[in-house]
Fold this sequence. Notes:
The complex is a heterodimer.
Chain A: H1 3-46, E1 50-55, E2 58-63, E3 69-79, E4 84-92, E5 97-104, H2 118-121, H3 148-165
Antiparallel strand pairs in A: 1-2, 2-3, 3-4, 4-5
Chain B: H1 2-5, H2 21-27, H3 31-54, H4 64-86, H5 88-94, H6 98-102, H7 105-115, H8 120-150, E1 153-155, E2 158-161, H9 175-191
Amino acid sequence: xxxxxxxxxxxxxxxxxxxxxxxxxxxxxxxxxxxxxxxxxxxxxxxxxxxxxxxxxxxxxxxxxxxxxxxxxxxxxxxxxxxxxxxxxxxxxxxxxxxxxxxxxxxxxxxxxxxxxxxxxxxxxxxxxxxxxxxxxxxxxxxxxxxxxxxxxxxxxxxxxxxxxxxxxxxxx
Amino acid sequence: xxxxxxxxxxxxxxxxxxxxxxxxxxxxxxxxxxxxxxxxxxxxxxxxxxxxxxxxxxxxxxxxxxxxxxxxxxxxxxxxxxxxxxxxxxxxxxxxxxxxxxxxxxxxxxxxxxxxxxxxxxxxxxxxxxxxxxxxxxxxxxxxxxxxxxxxxxxxxxxxxxxxxxxxxxxxxxxxxxxxxxxxxxxxxxxxxxxxxx
Lengths: 173, 198
């Protein structure tokens, strides 16, 4: 190593930092807007024709027609194969899953990434917390073949969030 | 022109150089994934090669590898941020593939073996050729795997090849299916003498 090696590498790293800073500040606002839009889209996929009110990190879904409370949507995090899986879990007032949507994940494309597909997520609909386990663990959810860790990550995240929120719909749920 | 065409078949990164097998295994479960990955890959590969080739005389030999890694990963992140901000629909599909490109050894391999030693024009041609070669390779492998593994080929919701068989071989979309497919293709190409020195 000579001084020149160190100097060049330092300059490259500093330049890289500057470029990243510039691009990040250029895109930060737009990315925020894009994510808000995406959030709104997912919320209305879970409870269509509802308005949403955020309270302590939980979205309350209120009917647009008569103002009746329809259910709750909360963010849940689980550990997948490639990193954290972030989900939106929608639950009706009687403690059944309304719908689950994936906000972000970094699972293997083609294998674990199939957790975001309807074939897998629709299995959660109308389930109570007791049924939300992989079939091999005694529940009702089929894991994606070749992606058990990713599947289990989603199942555990939904289950834990349901348990955490169960006071909202009474212990019977 | 030879710098461009050599990567397409004779020195195909997947079949001849045996580089980039990780993404080749991971994303070739469906043709759709392979197409998207190809696009993301070309986005990163060509500009990275151009930048590194332009800087090749100012980067000392001792620190070339860390320099290349910093440049490639910076570039990948810039692309990721730009697509996320300005082409959100695109990012939804492409998002999970972009981090995979940083660890794609085709990029690193070509940068080290070619762009760091050759002028910008040749390096861009080499990178584009390798990119096209990589794309073709993963598209061919994914077409075979998706057809045998799921029975049909569906791209962006449109059925390109309708169901041929009622009993698909599930193994083909799992990792062993990728190894088998790549191995058999390499064997066929070698047998026919298609993978030769330039």
